[in-house]
Amino acid sequence: MCYDYRTDAWEEKRPMIIARGWHSMCTLQDNIYSIGGSDDNIETMARFDILSVESYSPQCNQWTRVAPLLQANSESGVAVWEGKIYILGGYSWEETVFSKTVQVYDKEKNRWYKGTDLPKAIAGVSACVCVLKPKTEDKNKKTKTKNHQDRGR
């Protein structure tokens, strides 16, 4: 579904290729990514891991498969930094274990790499990226401070 704030209405878009829940989603450049997660087997109701990753183009209203994850990651953290997607930790329903693995997606190479592990295994984590720009010196403040100090002498 896509919300249009101008019309205050929701519009149905093309569904993902693979049904999934407990997955991660993010945007990278002009696409939306649906990453990993899990689903239930209809007959047994046993939950299974999904390693597939899909990329959605809003311009084309089309989902495309990209490189699959290296390992299962339901309920993982996700962040985008310097043109790469980072998947942090997660949970494998099939193996019933938490993960401390960081998986990094390089869109240009359509490939996942193993990053540096987290200090401990974790799932259900929220992640974000905050970019702080270096503080530049304000010449006006410097001049005012100097003038104020000179007057006190």
TrEMBL record:
<keyword id="KW-0833">Ubl conjugation pathway</keyword>
<dbReference type="Pfam" id="PF01344">
    <property type="entry name" value="Kelch_1"/>
</dbReference>
<comment type="pathway">
    <text>Protein modification; protein ubiquitination.</text>
</comment>
<dbReference type="InterPro" id="IPR006652">
    <property type="entry name" value="Kelch_1"/>
</dbReference>
<keyword id="KW-0880">Kelch repeat</keyword>
<dbReference type="GO" id="GO:0016567">
    <property type="term" value="P:protein ubiquitination"/>
</dbReference>
<dbReference type="GO" id="GO:0097602">
    <property type="term" value="F:cullin family protein binding"/>
</dbReference>
<dbReference type="InterPro" id="IPR015915">
    <property type="entry name" value="Kelch-typ_b-propeller"/>
</dbReference>
<protein>
    <recommendedName>
        <fullName>Kelch like family member 36</fullName>
    </recommendedName>
</protein>
